[in-house]
Amino acid sequence: MGSYRNDDEALIGLARQLADAYGEARTREDQDYACDSIAEYLSEFRETAPGEALLAIFDLPLTVETYPLVDEAQTALAARGPSIVELLLEAALGEVYDPDGPGSERAAETLDSMDLGEVSAGLTGVLCGRADGQLKGAAIDALVALGGVAEPDLVVSLDDPVGGEWARAALEQLRYAREHPGAADDEEPDDAAAEDAGGDVVAETAAETAAETAAEPSADDDTCAAAGDESGGRGPSAEGGPAGPDKDLVDDAYEGFLRRFEQESGGGALGDATGDSTAP
Fold first, then answer.
1. Where are the domains positioned within the chain?
2. What is the DSSP code string of 131-173?
3. What pTM was estimated for this model as a whole?
4. Which of 87, 138, 162, 273 allows an S-S link to 51, with CB 3.0 to 4.6 Å?
5. What is the separation of C-alpha 244 from the centre of its chain, rounded to a whole number of angstroms?
6. Which residue in 140, 146, 135 sits closest to 93, CA to CA?
């Protein structure tokens, strides 16, 4: 029971356990029990659980019973504003626990539902953080797709020691798109069109970037101005394109969690899953 280093890891594991329990349920009664447990989890932890925990709820198959749960998880994540954009962008690019599940699509939908200004602020935060080159390249493409909405945030980021070069590259692409509105794949929607489209253009651009990224790795950045994750940051390549490896978010303790769930089927709280009754 002591396999988790902290409460955040335990909350992520419990969310994955509960989502998997619904998928593995053999009877309607078991499905109802799993849904009730997930609803209790969201009621207690939706504000305090790490984003990865709420992303686990995205893996639920969509039914009449699970739709409100998925919607609540998406709403809770979107409400976190710019700070959640990097995690959602990673997930939209395929960095999810179950690559074959609906998590990536639902992460993109969550980005779509957010205020464009918050998305822009979050994307420029990615440029100034320690994300790898591929994620920063996707952030640039998404910022360019946002058009004029993103320009003020990019201008502010020009002086950042890590994100300045990336912001400059994005601004150059924005200006090129304005000067060449008919260029293939570079056409920039005007601000009104971007507002009408919501965040769709961000998610679509992120998906295209994930499929097309093939640039050579660029030099590592040693400093970080804004983000706190543990991956090493990379600077833009000579062409301004994305580079760098994907991150592996697979939780090695997942199988163990499933076994514990079977043994403790009566449990529905964090203390039952972790052996610690203290919630964060």
1. 1-79+252-280, 82-249
2. --HHHHHHHHHHHHHHGGGGHHHHHHHTT-TTTHHHHHHHHHH
3. 0.66
4. 87
5. 18
6. 135
Tokens found for residue 276: 């610690």
Neighbours of 105 (CB within 10 A): 15
The CA distance from 248 to 61, in Å, is 23
The closest alpha carbon to 108, from 125, 127, 126, 95, belongs to 95
For 245, phi then psi, to 5°, come to: -80, 160
Q: 3-state DSSP call for residue 130?
A: coil
Which is nearest to 139 in space by CA: 229, 250, 248, 240? Answer: 240
CB environment 191-205: b (16+ within 10 A), e (fewer)? eeebeebbbebbbbb
Q: What is the pLDDT of residues 64-122, one digit of tens each?
A: 999 999 999 999 999 999 999 999 999 999 999 888 999 999 999 999 999 999 999 99
Is residue 54 within 8 Å of 73, Cβ to Cβ?
yes
Tokens matching residue 243:
């580079």
Quickly count: other Cβ atoms within 10 Å of residue 3's Cβ. Answer: 14
**pLDDT at residue 236, as a whole number:** 46
N residues, the chain: 280
pLDDT per position as a tens digit, 127-167: 999 999 999 999 999 999 999 999 999 999 999 999 999 99
Token code pair at residue 214: 């093939």
The string over 24-41, giving b where at least 16 C-beta atoms fall within 10 Å of a residue's C-beta and e elsewhere, is eeeeeeebebbbebbbeb
